[in-house]
Each structure stands twice: as structure tokens, then as C-alpha cells.
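Just curious: can you write whichever protein you like plus the matching C-alpha cells?

***
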Amino acid sequence: MSTSGAGFALATAGLCSAIVLNVLFWIALAFSLPTQRTDRAFLFVAAVGFVVIAAAAIVMYALTRDSERVLRPARRLAVRLSLDPERVAALPSKIRHRFAALRSDRRLVRRLLGWSIAQWTLDMAALWVFLSAFNIRLNPLVLILVFGAANIAAAVPVTPGGLGVVEAVYITSLVQIGFTFQAATFGVAAYRLAHYVFPIIAGGVSYLTLRAGPRKLTAVTEPTEPSHSTDRQDGLGDTDPSLASRSPKTP
């Protein structure tokens, strides 16, 4: 896969995952409004998530247009970053074609949605397990609200990867619900530690299986065509091999 193709795949998966998370959060918020008092912070997070998704959609729409309003500043930015302006200007056309291919492949769209839902569901289940270990038990509706608020807040570029923001939202939300600060801190710390350490271990093991063992990846080299320039220079390029191997007759 090319670099641009890998970048588009990652961006598409990230955008689809963010949309699924926001939809789950909005659904949980809609169900919680008539049944229980909802903190205004959750409404603020829902608004922030909507703004982030809308901004991402506007940017993606702008990148698919071949308008000079988009291409001109893109070329200037490419020059400042020492990039090829023409390659940067060709990105909108590539993105537009890839989006067209994505819309036509409904099976791939269903897979993206399915894996996104599975990712967030398993992540929320892991949070519930770690919090339960410290006697913090949440019903599914509150769990989705707390989880969604923390991860949507992490989308705001305040710290790298939302580090510190996610933990602060988790702990603050749990304390406001009624749990102790100590239990919320230890539960969230254990969950976040596992959230970072376990994927690193799994990724390291997966990487080692690709470097050694039966699933080892091998580099594929393209065969090179033999050159006959030397033979032609010697006058043997168009000569029968059997004749070329004979010794010349002496006069």
C-alpha cells in the first residue's frame, strides 16, 4: 500500500470511529435526559463533539474540491514545508476518487462501522471491569456517558493524545456521581495503565511474529533483465551459442 493510501485508510478509520463514538454518546444522552438529571457538562461535551465532527466533515469536503481557494494556500504551505506543491495539489483529486470508491463498497463501510462499534464496546467493558475492581459499578447508560465524555474531550487538541484530559474527565465525572476521589483515581489509573501497556505488549509480540517464525515477512525483489550489451560489443550478441563456443580456425 502506498503512503497516501495508508494515510487515507487511517484517516477514514479514525473519522468513522469518532462518528460512532459521538452517536453512541448522543443516544445515551437522549435516553438519560427524561429519566434522570443530566449534568450540564455532558451537554457541553455533546456540543463539542458535534463541532469537532462538523469541522472534520467540512475539511474533508473542502479537500475533495479542486477549487483554487483550496489549492492556492495548499501550494503555499507545501513550499514553506519544502514539499512538492504539485503533489500536494493532486491530493484533493486522489481523496475524491478514494471516497467515491469507499461509497461504492458497502461491504467495507459495514466492516468499518462494525469494527468501530466493537472497539468502543470492548473498551467500555474494560473500563467497567477496572472500575468494578474498586467498587465502582455503573449502569450501562452512565458508563456510556462517562466514557463518551472523556474520549470526546480527548479529541480537543489540548495535550498529545488527550493525555491528562481523559483522566481528569473520568475522575471528575465519577466524583460528581457520588464515588470517592480515592476509588475513582485508582480505578482510572489502573484502566489507563492497562490501556497503554497491553496494546504495546500485544503489538511487540505481533511484530516479532512478522520478523521471525512461520509468518515471517520476506522482502520481494523484482527480477532484473539480463543485459546483452557486452555480448553485442564483442560481436556475439546475434551469434549462435554453438558457433561462439568453437575455437577460431588459424589461417
Remarks:
- Residues 3-35 form the longest helix (33 residues).
- The chain has a mean pLDDT of 76.
- Residues 9-211 form one domain.
- The chain is about 75% helix and 0% strand.
